[in-house]
Amino acid sequence: MTKARPPIAMLAELTHRCPLSCPYCSNPIEMARQDAELSTEEWKSVFAQAADLGVLQLHLSGGEPATRRDLEDLVQAAREAGLYTNLITSGIGLTERRLKALDAAGLDHVQLSLQGTTPEMADEIGGYKGGFKRKMQVAEWIAEIGFPLTLNAVLHRRNLHQLPRALEMAVEMGARRIEVATVQFHGWALKNRDALMPTREQAAEATRIVQEARLRLKGTLVIDYVPADYHSDYPKRCMGGWGSTGLNVAPDGQVLPCHAAQTIPHLRFDNVRERPLSEIWYDGAAFNAYRGTDWMPEPCSSCERKTVDFGGCRCQAMALAGDPAATDPVCIKSPHHVDLQARADAHAAAEYAALIYRSAPGKAPEPAE
Ligand code: SF4
Ligand code: FES
């Protein structure tokens, strides 16, 4: 068995409640209900355990983390544990007063999502009228307080033409970094492939725009890029390799090797309510299932790229090939690759399809002010 190193980053999904209904939501189809969420004290214990384990960066996510009324307390506890704290938010629910309280609590960084660069696009994709206007206000407060900012633009067939404007907006907002993420088809997003799959031409154009902007904006803006992987020949190194650098804690305390791991039916997940985080990381069955390279079948096991991409994404292999141990079908060496490319082209050529919005039993009303 591969000896694990300590994780570097932890994603704390504080809640699945969210005021938006994005059709590409990556949260599981079955979401944790509010009454199952970890309490403030339980999260504080998880943060202290994470720091002891070696975690350096804590990403506070959701759903919408601002929906948690104890967010400021949680940030403070994480900072006291010595963790670098990053808030991943849509901005909805963040007032100037709350942002100042988060600053006082020690929040280090904000990552703001962008559903579109116009109110029409952003509000349609997020399914939240007035969301864009509020987000722009939140961006101003973020700049005034001086939080380092990353913009997270999720792109797909409907809004890929807005990529140049998204880059401009990042510069105007004073962001240090933008994540240009072509939509990943996990969880709810799988229902929207006909509506959201980019065309092959769009995917190539996005790559060209990113390459040009990286040169032009060198020293001003760092651009992270997640290309349209259905149109690629090699898969992404998902999670930096399973169980190698990061872990996710779901709202109900289940500890996951990645955000979509619950789509792999045979895996059983430990819970921080029942087992110390360190034991879960090193000895948990789910973390050891695809750690390292020993589990790999051919063609991955003899491939020169096996420690480059670790066979791609286990959840994508599950969703597209029905086998989480299979080579990610994005890979040109996968027997499913040709079929996947044909399916991607068919989704991209589909007639205008209505968006199927994320719906949830735990749908958040207005987040705490
Ligand atoms: Fe990566 Fe496996 Fe494809 Fe090789 S065969 S490139 S290891 S996914
Ligand atoms: Fe689970 Fe890629 S999302 S391994």
UniProtKB/TrEMBL annotation:
Catalytic activity of the protein: [PQQ precursor protein] + S-adenosyl-L-methionine = E-Y cross-linked-[PQQ precursor protein] + 5'-deoxyadenosine + L-methionine + H(+)
Matches recorded under SMART domains: Elp3
Cofactor(s) the protein requires to work: [4Fe-4S] cluster
KW 4Fe-4S (keyword) present: yes
Signal sequence region: none
Protein family membership: Belongs to the radical SAM superfamily. PqqE family.
PROSITE patterns: MOAA_NIFB_PQQE, RADICAL_SAM
Quaternary structure annotation from Swiss-Prot or TrEMBL: Interacts with PqqD. The interaction is necessary for activity of PqqE.
GO molecular function: 4 iron, 4 sulfur cluster binding; cyclase activity; iron ion binding; oxidoreductase activity; S-adenosyl-L-methionine binding
Residue span(s) of domain Radical SAM core: 4-221
Native source species: Salipiger bermudensis (strain DSM 26914 / JCM 13377 / KCTC 12554 / HTCC2601)
Record-listed E.C. numbers: 1.21.98.4
GO biological process, one term: pyrroloquinoline quinone biosynthetic process
Protein known as: PqqA peptide cyclase
